[in-house]
């Protein structure tokens, strides 16, 4: 009776047409990796991100990219007559049938072709309906059909990519990378046999696998049993992600990539990215005992705005490897000073040769006295604007802020792309010294704007991108040139930094460093005519570093990257000055400043500058932002506010809400009335030398 049943099933299966099988090209085309790829501008892979968590596949692997040792092991274990049969090993089928009919344990008779059709058509898999004679015959006829349509090489290639090797690892590439940390082309014979041994039982325990690999070696496959047992114990035990973490780029890749099987081409250059990352890590390792373990680097092409290197993280602090140091907000330090002086020069409030007093000052504010100090805790006396900016002196910067106005400077920073979340009064005079949080991304593009003569447009990370639409410059090309020239001046910066330091490149560059309060952060941002390079060094915990400034922390990284970028352009000349600028030999009297050639905006040139102490006009009282309260119990005549000013040797007058009040050489007694007020010191020609805003509150009091 049993023989009759089998015969009837056999005849029935023979007349069933095999399912329509896809073509090899269709299978390959429909294959989708679980990973997305972030590519550099030349197509080189920067990062892989697994975005499909339901499957674990990698890119389709060509047969030529698979080690011959793995193919040998696969055929030895799964299908030794693969190249002789046409999809079915009839000898193995006969032996399996006899075992089945006699009630013995059936041996496997499925060829690679038969296994592949089950992978291509789930209805042919034993997992769909169990192991039956009918299903076996369906596999047989489908395998024969497959062999008529596909080549042997295509069958092997598809099988290696479609089969489950262990756990959720589907495909030879992801299995080889996850288990042996190498591509399939690099597998040796021992590793290959261990991998193939998984096919029969992908989730088998280690003891069973160690026994199986040695049995296969004893059966005739040349391999080292002892080493294979060790591989099972070590490699399979510590299964890892197919790709090691890349802290320099992974956070960016996770932000940009959105779906599996996506290839996103960026503007980055893989070689430059790797150099910048290695340079950062090398410098941080030299500072490890000084509480510096983190950093970030950004390299931008000035003309296009394309980001060429984006190093988001050093990876030295494992708990914060996914933090993007390029986008993180941190205190700016002195890095905002160039934009303050650009504004002052552009408004013609100062020239590069103007003299500022670097001395102790007490500035009245609504919160009390503000007492700025320099990084070195000393004062340099009378200095030119050129020296004050290049040597990063703090008191002159605060005095300059008082001249241009806090609101004007705040608005310029906003226009530059800085995300100042508070109103100007929140920052106060500290805004001149970097008392706001900024990101490396924002700083880099702001300095690029300086390099591009005040023309600001967005940065680009992906290719292709739209051509940026020209916008009105934030300041004149002449102001950009003057400030850039100052930032390139080794002589001018020597007062604070000396002549030999990492800011001194053999080709033209303009550069500024910055160090935040308590040395929590330090920066170095600068540009050549072609590139802008920005570097941040610190730690992810926001802790003070020990004796690490912009010069000793970030600047060496900036210097090395600039050298790498210009290794073939060491003789690059300085930029050409705009035609609107004038250059004059300036003579100074009243303080120790040798004569030198200086650049001026048209109409602002001075050949002789005489210095007298305290020549900077300022409004002493009221301070900017002061709120004056009327006293309802005091007679009106007794309630006077005395406007006090220091005119600095000039003939200046008080103007209140654009109305003339009196000359400012003497204090002026003003009768307060409720409202908002704008107090200015003006010259006879109408130029504003200083201004503040204040408010009067309270009930109107009768006489």
TrEMBL record:
Molecular function terms from GO: carboxypeptidase activity; penicillin binding; peptidoglycan glycosyltransferase activity
Domain Penicillin-binding protein transpeptidase per the UniProt entry, residue ranges: 295-537
Taxonomic superkingdom: Bacteria
UniProt-listed GO biological process terms: peptidoglycan biosynthetic process; proteolysis
UniProt entry keywords in alphabetical sequence: Carboxypeptidase, Glycosyltransferase, Hydrolase, Multifunctional enzyme, Protease, Signal, Transferase
Broadest EC class assigned to this enzyme: transferase
Gene3D superfamilies on file: Biosynthetic peptidoglycan transglycosylase-like, DD-peptidase/beta-lactamase superfamily
InterPro entries: Beta-lactam/transpept-like (IPR012338), Glyco_trans_51 (IPR001264), Glycosyltr_51/Transpeptidase (IPR050396), Lysozyme-like_dom_sf (IPR023346), PBP_1c (IPR011815), PBP_C (IPR009647), PBP_transglycosylase (IPR036950), PCN-bd_Tpept (IPR001460)
Signal sequence residues: 1-18
One Pfam family this sequence matches: BiPBP_C
Keyword Metal-binding carried by entry: no
EC number: 2.4.99.28
Domain (Glycosyl transferase family) ranges: 51-215
GO annotations of cellular component type: outer membrane-bounded periplasmic space
PANTHER family in alphabetical order: BINDING PROTEIN TRANSPEPTIDASE, PUTATIVE-RELATED, PENICILLIN-BINDING PROTEIN 1C
Family: In the N-terminal section; belongs to the glycosyltransferase 51 family.
UniProt cross-references to NCBIfam families, sorted A to Z: PBP_1c
Listed name of the protein: peptidoglycan glycosyltransferase
Organism name: Agitococcus lubricus
Lineage, opening ranks: Bacteria, Pseudomonadati, Pseudomonadota, Gammaproteobacteria, Moraxellales
